[in-house]
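FAQ: What does the model actually see?

It sees only this:
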Amino acid sequence: MFEYAFMQNAFLAGTIVSIIAGMVGTFVVARNYAFLTHSLSEIGFAGAAFGFWIGWPALLGMMLATAIASLSIGALEASYTKQDNVTSAVSALAIGLGILFLALGHTSTSAATGILFGSVLGISHQDLLILMTLAVFVLVLLSTNFRSLRQLSFDEAGLLHKGGKNRLSRYLFLIIIALSVSISSQLVGSLLIFVLVTLPAASAKYFTDTVPKLMSLAIIFALFGTWMGLTLAYLTNLPSSFFIAVIEVAIYLGALWQFRISQ
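And it is asked to produce this:
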């Protein structure tokens, strides 16, 4: 299996995506931003379709769309408008725009399928380098702002008296989510991004409660689902995103069952 360059690239990309998704997902789950992540995946679809239409790389279009959308939603978060309602409206508009951009750009069926469901087995060396660059950038943001992001996600009340610091941390966190969504789309596509960004961390919280352990276990769950999914995809010639989704859901249900019987 590993004698083929495309499988080497797929496993490297899968490993990078899983590490980022596990780390960022820990904060996403703690802050109850799962719905926002799901909505950003739909917005990312529109961004990727827009990129195809004007001749940009799909990843660039997705990054631009998710970053603008996440910051816009964040700006409205403190207003009287409920975030879920705003997010639903924005994501609904994004789906419509995505379909429009695909039609205007006469995007091929294979390209559209790649946006929606991922095309990890077709990742090139250039794609891998872009993915690694983005991942390093996200890791730098996480490491240099770890304390404030942890407090924002697990103890936001402690940041309230800091005013501007709290708002800065929220916007930074939204940018990190947007980048993570764009990175994860390379593996599972825009429709299943939330699988990697939320489920591994949601499963991990049933086994431990410290942030470093949560993050480590979320990465392990994400890596296991990704590696097994890629292996099964190679053996069966079926989509890797299907196997990844099934495995991560099975891990989550197992974690939930274990938690309930232990109570």
